[in-house]
Fold this protein.
Amino acid sequence: MNNLLIEKTKSTPAIQFDTLSKVLKISGESFPENTAKFYTPVLEWLKVYIEQLDADTEVTVEFEIIYFNSSTSKIFMTIFDMLEDAVENDKKICVNWRCDEKNETAIECGEEFKEDLDVLPFNLIIEGDQ
Amino acid sequence: MKFDLYDFYQKVKTKKILYFYCGPIAHSSIEAASYTLRKHLEFEEAGNSTTQAVFSIFIEQAQNILNYSAEKLGDQEDNQENELRIGVVVIGNEGDGGYFIYCGNRIYTKDIAQLKSKIEAVRNLSKEELKALYKETRRKEPEPGSKGAGLGLIEIARKSSRPLEYNFSTINKSFSFFSIRVVVER
């Protein structure tokens, strides 16, 4: 399966989904002009990728988001629900929600996603300057 | 008469306005304004939470104009990519280190009742109730006619320090003007 790479812009995050390292990374800002349009290929790629995963492959999904708007929040929830379903079907996936210690809003948003998930391992990783 | 913009400039200054835009809004205008607004708030030492709250309210409001304003430049139903929607956004200082974010745009008079009920549904909820509603709506199918997730107003209410204030002024039989005022206290 091909990697999915999308370069970041001022209002859309970088997408670096690497099948070799099994690290799927979304980083930057997210307030696209058309949220559904931007994330449709991302969701489609994820769906296919998850389906072909075997039970031994360990995948890490990294989120490093400075700011996201409300329509992105809904898409992220959709992604987490997809991953949660996959974990229920014995796939090994974990999420690292990375945020800067000074970005209280991003920390809070991570906590709120975590509260809404049951089986998906969701690690809130708060990083300092260095 | 001599041309002089100083008078207008002074008026804007005395009203402690950080950002003012009135006219057609494109997505690229929002991107550009985002950068300036964050820098400005940084220079004002607004603090991370306040900056994020003002920024988030600005984005939701500007994107509401972009998606829903009933005043358009250019084009017709068949070419939505090529149209610009018109509105006004004002951000300024509000006593004791807080900020106000005003936003206004034309709406169809027939849509007033629906918008009013959406705002009323969130304006008197507590922060806990808003959080619960936000989470519930986030997992729901969007309403027909919604271009986003239906979360924008809830997000604005969550970030606001006071109940949302809003108003509808009649322009003519078909159109009205919608204004909303949000305050973020430090």
Residues 48-68 of chain B form the longest helix (21 residues). The two ends of chain B are 44 Å apart (CA to CA).
